[in-house]
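Z., the sequence and structure:
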Amino acid sequence: MCPLILSSLVLMLTFSPVVKPATIRTVLSLAISRDWPTHQLDVKNAFLHGHLSKIVYMHQPPGFVNSTHPDYVCHLQHSLYGLKHAPRAWFQRFASFAIRIGFQHSKTDTSLFIFDRGSDIEYLLLYLDDIILTASSTLLLRRIIVMLHGEFSMTDLGSFNYFFVISAQRYASGMFLSQSKFAEEILEWARMQNCNPCRTLVDSESKLGHVGDLVSDFNLYRSLASSIQYLTFTRPNLSYVVQQVCLYMHDPCESHFTALKCILRYVRGTIDHGLLLHFSSTTQLTAYTDADWAGCPVTLSRSSAGSEYHSVANVVAETAWIRNLLRELHAPFFTSTLGYYDNVRALYMSTNPVQHQRTKHIEIDIHFVRDFVVSGHVRVLHACPFAFSVCKYFF
């Protein structure tokens, strides 16, 4: 299995201080729009800084066994790498120090810390042992860095340029985020570094289903699917098709592997593509959603109204989270979120207060969306199917 994917799976088994990708993109976008400096720090041996809140014992390590008492065990005083408690202990130690020097915990993302003292504002993003800082002034930025150096052993990496296989290039007009090196590693792992590129991500005429023989190497399929899923951080145009191949990770067929290879061939031809963050004064949040369970060859659903409305509820929840995040970051939206989708029945249900027998299975979603529509935070609008196909494949 790919080392990167293996480490990611290990981190998923325990609590890990990992900031959300959407939070990173939002904070960096605000920093670019406000022309704030960005800085990066790396904590040395981060998990060794944690203090254990519970009693933990371990066997005597090989080569250091007490010959007089070989059956004794060690009582740990500090966390160690490989210990399940280590990520949580490190995060609690860091969070308590950040709060002590004036930061506040974000309610929308636990790995985001906000410093707010009038005109002095600073954001701190924590991803395991990597820290991204951005502040309203260079003086405030340097002062916080000195405080962090005084508490933890750190490496000052200077201006933000590389963060967990994501490279960043700062320009006068914005910042370009790229994962081209990571994409090359994925292609090399799949032995497709010299493959023929393709111009499209997916065959729009066919639909994936449980058809054909199972793949011979399950681990390879799952590793590649997980890897390209992380590639969507700077390549949001891959999100839809990557989600499709990830749905079949439990028992992938050869047709799924063919679709996966098609994605990799597209990545091979667009290896230098990335995400450009530029100055923006946007005051409107717009969301698009579409669902077609009626055409799904797996579920064989006869009606997609329920699935359409469930997808609308998911989008409303996501945009509500983004609005709360921006409010904490002192960049609130004062206009309604525009939500576009192409199902007329779902559009009527979002404003119709009357309950029907056919909507019992989605009553929670209906009430959830209606509350946001009535409050004025969300406006649901109808869009033609073509608009969704454009967003789905060329976003």
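Residues 178-275 form one domain. Confidence is low (pLDDT under 50) at residues 3-14, 384-395.

Let me know what you think.
H.
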